[in-house]
Write a structure and sequence with these properties.
Elements (H helix, E strand, L loop, with lengths): L1 H6 L1 H4 L2 H24 L13 E2 L10 E2 L1 H9 L3 H8 L6 E13 L4 E7 L8 E7 L14 E12 L4 E10 L1
Parallel strand pairs: 5-7
Antiparallel strand pairs: 1-2, 3-4, 3-6, 4-5, 6-7
């Protein structure tokens, strides 16, 4: 290599040689920076969403989301993709404070409970089936009473943002 440099030093260190070396250096540097940029963590650019709670008391549910957050994420997608996106929230354990709306007795000891999730702005609704014998207060509960609901999402109707819940535990 040293012998080649000595034999070609005249053109190598003239304007043409320096131009070629600088171009080669710039080309290699841009390829290296491109690779680094492609592997950069883009999460650093994400802003915190107030509807996403990354702290939770429940270790089985380390990330809890609000109904508003779910609605917002689904609405960001084109309508065709929304149905598929909803599938990712099915089975998610939630722990939400809601407002009692109605309770109707279904078969035997089962009550169908309807709840309002967000009274501010556009309300989201949830419903669940619980044993009336476990929650006899539902028979006389006034509309608007705050209830904390721990449950799993069974389904979501994106048109109305109606959350059907299962395995619900009501705390009031």
């Amino acid at each position: 290599m040293l012998k080649w440099i000595l034999n070609n030093k005249e053109w190598l260190f003239s304007g043409v040689g320096i131009f070629i070396i600088a171009g080669l250096y710039g080309f290699l540097k841009s390829k290296t920076n491109f690779k680094l940029a492609a592997h950069t963590n883009t999460n650093a650019n994400l802003k915190a969403d107030p509807d996403l709670n990354l702290e939770s008391e429940n270790l089985t549910n380390p990330i809890s989301v609000t109904a508003k957050y779910i609605r917002k994420q689904i609405n960001l997608l084109p309508p065709f993709q929304q149905k598929d996106a909803i599938k990712h929230y099915i089975g998610l354990t939630i722990d939400w404070e809601m407002n009692f709306h109605t309770a109707e007795q279904n078969d035997g000891d089962i009550a169908h409970v309807t709840l309002v999730i967000d009274k501010e702005g556009r309300p989201d609704f949830a419903s669940c089936d619980v044993k009336l014998s476990q929650y006899p207060e539902l028979k006389v509960m006034q509309e608007g009473k705050k209830i904390r609901v721990k449950a799993k999402i069974k389904s979501i109707n994106s048109g109305l943002y109606w959350f059907q819940l299962k395995d619900a535990i009501l705390v009031y």
